[in-house]
Amino acid sequence: MHATTSPEPPVKLRDLIDAMRKLGNAMRDTQQTAHISDARGAALALTTAEGAIVSMNRSAAALLGYASADLAGKRLADLAHEEDYAAVEQQLRDSADHVFRTFDVTLTGRTGHRMPLHVYQQTFAPSQGGALLRLMLLAEPLASLGSEKSQSAQPPADDARKPATWLMMGQQRERERLAAELHDGMGQALTLIKLMVEDARMRLRRGQADDAAQLLDATVLQIRDTIGEMRQICGELRPLALERLGLPAALSALCRRVGQSIETLRVMFSCGIEDGEIPDHLKADIFRVVQEALNNIVKHAAASEIRVELQRNASHLLLTIRDNGTGYEARPLRTDDARSNGLGLTGMQHRVETQGGTFAVSAIPDDGTEVSAYWPL
Question: Which one GO biological process term can you cite for this protein (predicted)?
Answer without folding.
Answer: regulation of DNA-templated transcription
